[in-house]
Amino acid sequence: EEIKRAHRDLDNIFRIAGDGMCVIDTEFNVLGVNNTFERIFDIPPGKAEGRKCYEFWKDSRCHTPECTFARVLAGEERVESDMVKKRADGTSVPCIVVATPLKGADDEIRAIVSTYKDLSKLKMAQDQLLQSEKMAAIGQLAAGVAHEINNPVGFISSNLNTLDEYREDITALLQTYVQMEGLLANVEKGEQLENALHAAQELKEKMDIEFVLDDFGKTISESKEGTDRVKKIVADLKDFSHAEEHELTYADINKGLESTLNIVRNELKYKAKVTKDFGELPQIACYPQQLNQVFMNILVNAAQAIEKQGEIDISTRTLDGKVEIRISDTGKGIPNDVLPRIFDPFFTTKAVGEGTGLGLNMAYNIIKKHKGDIRVESTVGEGTTFIVDIPVG
Asked: What is the pTM of this model?
């Protein structure tokens, strides 16, 4: 009875465990799954047993040596991997899978036990946190962005006033010439014609028609440039503030850096001279908005590290199958005791209320999500360099 009770208890624990659990044999046949597993992968109760595992949750590693179960059968005692499984209906389930062998008395593998932690809710929370941090950053940059917009809007407004004055003068001059044209139709009104011609000449000299005609085109061109700048700032800000991306997109890293610089221009221009050395880069599969947030965090930190005036150098190149982005500043540098902690969540050297301590941590997580690497080199009193590597393939 005790043995039966123990079996029932174990079966209940298996069934109600918080993580999904699955047991398969060495031929990939499902021997049993628990309730959580059925819920995660949307499988009706009792419909998994006796069928092949890959019939229910498909993965790119199925039928390859990288298959989690294949690795266990090959001799690994514990295999842990992140993966995105596909349900039968095609929807994705991000999860962490841990698989271990179940051996008999002869040390032969009888079955494989695997657990599945559903990361969907965690992923949603991370996306919300990332979006929240992004919007907080936009809020901090809002005054600068407003200034960048006000600048071109200001000279557009001024140019329009100047153009209106030109319009009045040109209109008056043209009206005088129209009057002269009417007088030319009747040569007997020679004195009136002479007076009209004299008035037109005086008006022409007063308004400096040659300057007006030359400046007219320049003023219109400058105004067009200003409106283009406003549209670009607004478009970049709109792109930057979009909700989280869920699909990889091929993008140009150099364009992403230019877009980010456009957003943070006001944060940088009073503190540093920005120099760019962009190499020719292939487009890479990435989450462009997320990478732009990484660049923004690094650039804003670089500006804040410069106490008076300094330099920020940005360079890109392709190296060993990776795109390398280097962002260097001539700021105060990072002390050695702080350097190992800069990517830790909620760690900040700023005063309370001035920073969340999430910027660089999110940058780190975003780069790792791209299977890349981010590192920092710094010397107190000389400056800091962030190096980001992202695989091309």
From this structure: 0.50
